[in-house]
Amino acid sequence: ILPPSPKFLTSAIPCSTTVEMGNLQQLMQVLLLLACIAVVGCSASSSPTCEEVGLKLRKRHLQGEVMDVVRTGEDEEHFVILTSKRQVYTSHDGGRSWKHVKLRAGRKNHAIFTGVSVSPVDPRTVLLSTPDRRYARSHDSGRTFRLHNGPVAFHDIRPNPNSANLWLASGFSPSCFANSRTRGSHGDDASVCKRSLYFSRDNGKSWESALHYLVDYDWGSCKECVVVSMHREQKGHQFSLNQREILVVYTQDLFNHKRQIISAALGFRHVKNHLFVAAQDPGNSDGMHLYVSRHPADPLRRVKFPKDVPQRRYSVVDVVAHQSMISVEHSDGLGDLYVLEHSETEAVAVLHKVPRDRYGHASVTPIKGLNGGYIANVVSESVSVGYAIVLGAASL
User: Which of 3, 82, 249, 362 has its CA 20 to 30 A from that of 297?
Assistant: First the structure.
């Protein structure tokens, strides 16, 4: 909803330029108020002020742009902000005040941070990754942090959705960032560039090595279930290995036992317990197929699409009830939407020429409050047209 003019919007809330940010409920009240003003068209003189709706705003200058905001703790009072300057700020009063997190990383330097992870099971636990082997851990919603030494510089850290104690983290070996003249080719840890996966059983206090030459990973549907893709060849520099020799592996006991699901994989997605894997076509080096299973432990089934349509990339839009919505890229920036019944192997085309961005995301937006409802844009004679789609038992 857009107001008639920027001047109208500015005069609608005659607040002071200094702001103290209240809780989320107050912020939503102001947003709803703006929407109401824009629709009804009431005059600026009759509109409430920030003070009348209970919102006080205070401008706060941070080092860098805000890149990520996460809520910590068990209420709406605790937040952590990560900025583009790799700085972290915390608030424990609903955003009314912010504290700059400064951890001594040397005699003269403070630690800088590259990521924020919060356990969904115990949101009091917060982990901050850094560009080096150290990472910061908090057990009190970000009030205090302590630096720990990890096995490598963590590229990302992912908490277990079902257990507060279990975490996964991946990172690249130090030689990936060293001068190329220091790299060797004999496969030892000191000289070979590779990405490795680690896990923690004690809420991020210590880490164990799971596997090397990692491509991608995700938590599975059970407590210790993990799905990973990794290189078949386990020697040499990872980025010089054959990208067509990638395995998808599944474990149910946190890597005590591993089972290969498929070879020649191009990528996978684990969505609502369903596993989707894109793999090379054995008979065509330029072709690919999509495979799906209702659970990573179940056998994969190949999804059948129209034979005369080239398949370049897949993306899973959503899984609802007994159906999946899949976007298949057939040409640059365009693809078709298909619906797959989980009891079938042949996908049914729903819409053609749905735009896709460079990251492979289809122009499909979920309808809030309607499970299985979506709005999809379609290019028709150079004009974008919107369609409503309903999956499962949902109805408009």
Answer: 362
Question: 30, 25, 4: which is closest to 15 by C-alpha?
Answer: 30
**98's tokens:** 């912010």
Asked if residue 185 has pLDDT above 50, the reply is no
Q: What is the pLDDT of residue 61?
A: 82
C-beta separation of 338 from 345 below 8 A: no
* Two structure tokens written together for 68: 């990520």
As a whole number, mean pLDDT of residues 314-318 equals 92
Q: Which backbone phi and psi does 88 adopt, to 5 degrees?
A: -125, 135
Largest CA distance in the chain: 76
* Residue of higher predicted confidence among 30 and 392: 392
Compute the distance between CA of residue 138 and CA of residue 18 in angstroms, rounded to an integer. 31
| Closest by Cα among 356, 320, 357 to 340 | 320
- Token pair belonging to 105: 């990383």
Task: Compute the distance between CA of residue 292 and CA of residue 275 in angstroms, rounded to an integer.
Answer: 6
Instruction: Give the residue-averaged pLDDT of 22-33.
Output: 52
